[in-house]
Amino acid sequence: MIEILTKYFATFADGFLITLESSIIALIGSLVLGTLFAVLQLVPNKFVNRLAQAYVEIFRNIPLLVITLFFFAFVAPLVTHLGIAMDGFTAGTIGLTLYTSSFIAEVIRASINAIPKGQMEAGRTNGMTWWQTMRLIILPQAFKMSIPSLGNQFINLVKNSSVLAFVAGMDLMYQANNIAQSTFDSMGTYMVVALFYLVITLPLSYGMKYIEYRSNRGGNA
Amino acid sequence: MEKAKKKRFGIILTLLSMIFFFGSIALLAVFSANSQDTTDTLERVKNSHRMVWGVKADTKLFGLMNTKTGQIEGFDVDIAKAVTQQIADDLNITIDPVFTQVTSSTRIQLLKNGNIDAFAATATITPEREKIIDFSNSYFDAGQSLLVKKGSDIKSVADLNKKGKTVLGVVGSNSVVNIKKYAPKAKVLGLSDYAQAMTALRAGQGDALTTDNGILYGMATENKGYVVVGGTFTTEPYGLAFDNNQGPIVRAANKALKEITASGKYNKIVKKWFDGVPGINWEDLKR
Asked: Would you say the ipTM is above 0.90?
């Protein structure tokens, strides 16, 4: 295991950075998209609600691998005509973002629903619009409430980024497969990989706990 | 009082389950370490009268699942059968060959765990791999080549050695390691298996697919519009693989390989699988 780590450290480091990059992009992207689709499921417009629900149900109920392969094998040749090169990294990160955003949408929607109805009514009677109330009163409270579940989703996201390996996205898992296959020492390699994943997920895990602690100090919720 | 009791019960239960969990892991580790040192594969095969082979089931010509019969068929399978038969004859006992499906990523672990006694799965003999497992002498000499779309501007490996060219292969395979030497300027992508790599080639994710010629010819017969170009640029000796430090069975297999070559059985198997495959002259493969 030590031998594998020292001999292939540069390769692992490359993969680690790709995993980190993909995770950060997907984390931001899925948080934005997830919040958007959570709100769209609740706006006072039935048609928009249905569309947003369809989005969530489609991406929540299809395996991540299938979504990724769809972009890698089907969408990629279509967009090459437009001059866009979609490689494994792009396809994987898009898949990861869409997949995770559907779960985040559900988490945030549940939190919004848990905010007492009176809050929205109070905002509206004070002359604020629906969007204003949502943005300034409901969402800040909902976010606070959803921090623990969001932490779960983010950790899952980092681990799910190993889907990039399937489409040659050059991530940590891809490099690990490469090393394991050419040295035939799978045990040692995957143990090293586990450590590298922990380097990302443990700080993330404690970071989310810290944010939770900080936000609770302010009282309520 | 009731509550405190419950709490204590909970703590004890948690502790017990943790001890059980870690204990079983430790036991397992000790047990597996022991079993790896002591079993001699040849002894095991002799005693059980069966030899479990890992073979590929997704590689045309070498090991492919026949969906009608559910049997795995191919060159690797027939060589394994012949070698098993020969070992049995040499020892004057009966040994039944049994076939299990493996992939490039599972074959080592299955061998190490003792689920299979050996594998014949298009594995190239390399010094790096020899550290982990034992190989027999080569039973087939493949060579690396390229599969491209008909009409592609890639005619040989030299055409790939340019910036902006992408080569597809199977992750960790020896051909992916090799192509980096022959076309250092090209980008190399390793997919999880040959079917995936072919999908990627069709999707335009790469300019060429590289692996051993035998496998590529098999793919070209199944995918119209794709051709093998450029001849071979490496030699890939395939070996039968056994667990590390299994001298007796490796010697037995080498002896058996020699004998089936001498008796002409080897050439019969070569003819069966490679006669009539476009691009291969089976006579060249005779030994």
From this structure: no
